[in-house]
Amino acid sequence: MQPQIHHPHALRIAAVLSVLSVALLALVAARWGPLTGADRDIVVPLHRSALDHPGWTETNRVLTDWFWDPWTMRALTAVMVLWLLLRRERTLALWIVVTAASGTALQQGVKALLDRPRPHWANPVDSAHYAAFPSGHALTATVTFGLLLWMLKLHGAPAPWQRLATAVAAVSVLGVGVTRLYLGVHWPTDVLGGWLLGAALVAWAVATCPYSVIHRDERKSSSDGRVRP
User: Fold this and answer.
1) Contact, 111 vs 130, CB < 8 A?
2) Per residue in 7-18, pLDDT tens?
3) How many angstroms separate the CA atoms of 64 and 180, rounded?
4) CB-based contact 53:125 (threshold 8 Å)
5) What is the pLDDT of residues 121-171, one digit of tens each?
6) What's the predicted TM-score (pTM) here?
């Protein structure tokens, strides 16, 4: 599969997502009343449901701790990087590594900046560490699946593969947000912030990717016979 370079709107999308991310961050930092009220209106009934349905609560724990955990997402990223290295696409592999690492740094930096408390419960069903905003699970899943979809499109993967990957990505990114809310370890705006920041980061990666270098690496790999697309 040869790279297909068709991302003319990525810069515009990245800019819009960045503006939305900064706006949400500012509202959270200011503890805007309507936003904090909406957060609580959502998490309180979800917590009651988690207490009343221990089986469903355990299912959410398994999903968030094993399937959509940040370490699982990093393992998926490592598989992408390994595949690119085997194809001698070193520049693109490095771009994936830098983007994923930037996501972790961005997440930790914003958490430290805001130091937002997580929801506090007298009878919690789960626990989490560090500050609440943004959700690390939501941000990492968004970055990982965003990069995966980009890789499939960039290399001209068959349409059925792209549709399947898109469906899995949508379920995973939305699902991990739901699990974090259901388990009472995040506010809804934490999850929304993770989605927006993760999507913005992927959009910037796509918009600024050195495609000319990627094409040069691909041509070099094809000419010396080491890679057969």
Assistant:
1) yes
2) 668 899 999 999
3) 7
4) no
5) 999 999 998 999 999 999 999 999 999 999 999 999 999 999 999 999 999
6) 0.91
Instruction: Report pLDDT for 48.
Output: 97
User: What is the pLDDT, as a whole number, of residue 9?
Assistant: 84
CA separation (Å) from 195 to 12, 131, 145?
A: 17, 16, 11
Residue whose entry in the numeric block shows the structure tokens 């998490």: 43
In terms of Cα–Cα distance, which of 199, 208, 98, 214 is closest to 142?
199
Kindly report the three-state secondary structure assignment for every residue of the chain: CCCCCCCCCHHHHHHHHHHHHHHHHHHHHCCCHHHHHHHHHHHHHHHHHHHHCHHHHHHHHHHHHHHCCHHHHHHHHHHHHHHHHHCCCHHHHHHHHHHHHHHHHHHHHHHHHHCCCCCCCCCCCCCCCCCCCCCHHHHHHHHHHHHHHHHHHHCCCCHHHHHHHHHHHHHHHHHHHHHHHHCCCCCHHHHHHHHHHHHHHHHHHHHHCCHHHHHHHHHHHHHCCCCCC
Tokens of 112: 């430290």
pLDDT of 225 reads 43
Beta-carbon neighbour count of residue 52 at 10 Å?
Answer: 9
Question: How many angstroms separate the most distant Cα atoms in the chain?
Answer: 65
The residue type found at 23 is A
CA dihedral 54, 60, 65, 70 (to 10 degrees): -150
Contact of 102 with 142, CB cutoff 8 Å: no
Do the beta carbons of residue 186 and residue 119 sit within 8 Å? yes
